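Q: Sequence in, structure out?
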Amino acid sequence: MADTHHEDGRGAPLPPVLAPGHTYGSVTSTISDVVLVRALDWRWAVGMGIATSLLMLFGAAVSYLLFRGVGIWGVNAPVMWGWAIINFVWWVGIGHAGTLISAILLLLKQQWRTSINRFAEAMTLFAVACAGVFPLLHMGRPWKFFWMMPYPSTMALLPQWRSPLVWDVFAVSTYATVSALFWYVGLIPDLATLRDRAKKRWIAMIYGSLALGWRGSARHWARYKSAYMLLAAMSTPLVVSVHTVVSLDFAASVIPGWHATIFPPYFVAGAIFSGFAMVVTLMIPLRAWYGLQDFITDRHLDNMAKIMLATGMIVGYGYAMEFFIAWYSGNPYEEFLLLSARPFGTYTNAYRCMILCNVGIPQLLWIPAIRRNPVVLWVISIFVNIGMWLERYVIVVTSLSQDFLPSSWANYSPTIWDVATFLGTIGLFSFLLFLFVRLLPAIAIAEMRELVHEKHHEHAARGAAVAESHGDHR
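A: Exactly. Output:
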């Protein structure tokens, strides 16, 4: 799927990654005007209002939790992990697409990443922030979070290194730190562009301070390219490592339904699946509201849909392998849970909805017309987001509610505070995203100008080849 190929497998021309006719100036003004010139859009205002309301709900839910403790959640014995861990894994998974799009596709020199990488990177940071809330709150005493760190203690205490909670602390914090650095370094040339185009002095001063004195000299560009590629190379293994560590939270245990070595690749594929689904969910409305169809073209939608299809099939393979592993292991507890309790037990509706959303509906993406239809693709992405949340629900709740001892079995149901906390994190995510769209360029201006440059060269080279061909014929 290299960008140098301008035809698909059937010989039909691929849509361009940038609509023709754009210049350096048109690219710069179209993207920067969203931040500096355009008035507030009513749709942005309505969305921001809803996000703020949910954020206030989040504040109320967390305040009450700190006052009363985690007993206000629906967790019980034996389901000591409930929506908190479900939401944590779901948000971390969503955070994968940004680094994948930005770092891995950059190293693979895929031009189509250019229009969507900035937005996806921001989405990563906000999703990881939402994910980090849940383990902290689930600890019961979040103000003791530093006990997870190897801090200098007079009693020579160290974290329990065998605890998956400690693994999560290091994995997620490393991922968040490198992703934030990668995002900020990529922003520096664009911050300088906003500084130079700002009409008001105080705005120019803010963007100027953030641009770290960028002047666009050859030395600046050389340093920038080195740092950006280095961070991309550092970020790439983190995409795999973070969700592998998160999957080991489950796989390191002996609970039926969790004790499977397929969890790491299965979780990583699921994370990329849900991350791309969230990018599509957010990108399609943004593209329509701000008239960015020239930059986020049908080619981008098509490619993201193909990745969703591929990763969705890996996830479906993981579901099938769980059946096989349960049967092949001969373990009666695994067989009961995976062959009976999940597909036909108390939570069968959640399980069947998960299969429908993650395996059934994505099969529509085999059809090219659906992949390039924004409305249908957006609806499919919503189903995938729901399905991936249900996947975590099924894994956590079914395994814990029916473990080894039938006498200890208990059903799980969330409370209103579980729902409020989850909706609150959606508000936090949306609030940060709406701020980002208005305060920073959602599409990388400098990289789009490079794309214009390359397209001009391609066009010139093609024209020279045609002229040479005509000359040979004469």
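Residues 80 and 400 are 8 Å apart (CA to CA).
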